[in-house]
Amino acid sequence: MKNKAVFLDRDGTVNVEKDYLHRTEDLEFERNVPETLKYLYDKGYMLIVVSNQSGIARGYFTVQDVEDLHAFMQKKAEDAGFKIEKFYYCPHHPEGKVPEFSIECSCRKPGTELIDQAVKEFDIDVSASYMIGDKAADMVAGKRAGLTTILVGTGYGKETAGNFKDYDHYFEDISQIKSVI
After folding, report:
1. Which of 70, 91, 98, 168 keeps 20 to 30 A from 20, CA to CA?
2. What is the tens place of the pLDDT at every residue in 16-47?
3. Banded pLDDT at 162 (limits 50, 70, 90)
4. Active-site residue among 11, 65, 134, 138?
5. What are the boundaries of each domain within the chain?
């Protein structure tokens, strides 16, 4: 039997949107996120973060900074009673300043490469899985990958909802997803 998963955008969805978050001391979870992720985890969903981290390509922070922040987030998750199965992130941006990361790629959302990697690695049933995010790129990637999409009103979500309509559900607060999951 295949696994079911909830794919989560990071900035603006899991944590408060802060310009190019990379320091652990700046991490702040969005409202109701730890409780909601524990709810999903307890219901048997794998929790997988898929995030664009163009700050690496732009030279604002390093891969190690991102890895350290994700390890810190994982510890916070475990302290709250759940586990994030894996953090996938795209370090690229075509207009970056760090040559090795300044490329066009298929892993940057709305590309689906990060989701596709997780689906293969964890044998995920996309028809029983979800993508939660705050931007159009999250919704487009989720739809392209065959996931049910949920736009949340945190981060850029309210602005996105006013300009973009191709998602399956919209909730002001992540805790409201309990009505569909």
Report:
1. 168
2. 999 899 999 999 999 999 999 999 999 999 99
3. very high
4. 11
5. 5-179
Residue type, 1: M
d(CA 178, CA 164): 23
Percent of the chain with pLDDT over 90: 99
Determine contact, residues 133/166, Cβ cutoff 8 Å: no
9 catalytic? Reply is: yes
All residues at 6 or more sequence positions from 75 whose CB lies less than 8 Å from its CB, including other chains: none
168 is a catalytic site residue: no
For the packed helices 136-144 and 113-122, what is the interaxial angle rounded to 10 degrees?
50
Class of domain 5-179: alpha beta
- The single residue of 9, 65, 116, 138 carrying the catalytic annotation is 9
